[in-house]
Amino acid sequence: MIKEVSPERFFGEAERLILGLVVVATIFIHLVWGGLVETFSFLAGGILGFLNFRTTKKEGIDFVKKIQEIFASDQKNLYNKERHVYIAKIYLKLLATAIVVYFLIAHLGAHPVFLISAFGLVYLSLTVYSFIKFFLFMKKEKKEILT
Q1: CB 27 within 8 A of CB 118
Q2: 26 contacts: CB under 8 Å, gap ≥ 6
Q3: CA 84, CA 81: separation in Å to the nearest integer?
Q4: Residue of 63, 88, 67 whose CA lies nearest to 76
Q5: How far apart are CA 24 and CA 18, in angstroms?
Q6: How far is Cα 26 from Cα 69, in angstroms, rounded to an integer?
Q7: How far apart are CA 98 and CA 114, in angstroms?
Q8: Which positions, given as ranges, span the membrane (predicted)?
Q9: CA-to-CA distance for 106 and 133, rounded, in angstroms?
Q10: Is 35 helix (H, G, I), strand (E, B) or coil?
């Protein structure tokens, strides 16, 4: 029997993993490059990526729950409205992130390569973690089905 996976638990574990990776990678960047600009840039990019992920995660879970309620109540026309509101929020968040990145680079002198690499680390680690959890889940479910 396939059990439902709790998105809150999954994303909670992912958040802890992401924060740990950002801290360890920031220490590594500081030890290897030794510059405060590079370290600050990487840490700022990691924090910005984490905050972006965290707010998107919260709204994403709420969006999925609303869509489930809409389909359960058989009101299909509300789906398009909810979807457009969610997409608009994502674009506004993207705009806010771009403004913060511009401010960090133009006014605080953050190094763009380290800023973007930390931001990418957040989403790369989330992707890898998702694949690992998915394959472990499928392996476990396959064993339960066969027994």
Answers
A1: no
A2: 39, 42, 43, 46, 118
A3: 5
A4: 67
A5: 10
A6: 42
A7: 15
A8: 18-51, 90-108, 114-136
A9: 39
A10: coil
Q: In 3D, which of 101, 124, 121, 111 has the Cα closest to residue 25?
A: 121
Cα end-to-end span (Å), the chain: 11
Token duo for residue 97: 């992130």
- Residue-averaged pLDDT of the chain: 84
- Going by C-alpha positions, the residue among 62, 56, 96 that lies closest to residue 82 is 62
Q: Indicate the pTM of the whole model.
A: 0.77
| Cα separation, 107 vs 44, whole angstroms | 14
Q: CA 101, CA 96: separation in Å to the nearest integer? A: 9
Q: How far apart are CA 142 and CA 135, in angstroms?
A: 10
Overall average pLDDT of the 118-125 stretch: 93
Decide: 38 and 114 in contact? Cβ < 8 Å.
yes
pLDDT of residue 105: 95
* Whether the Cβ atoms of residue 116 and residue 98 lie closer than 8 Å to each other: no
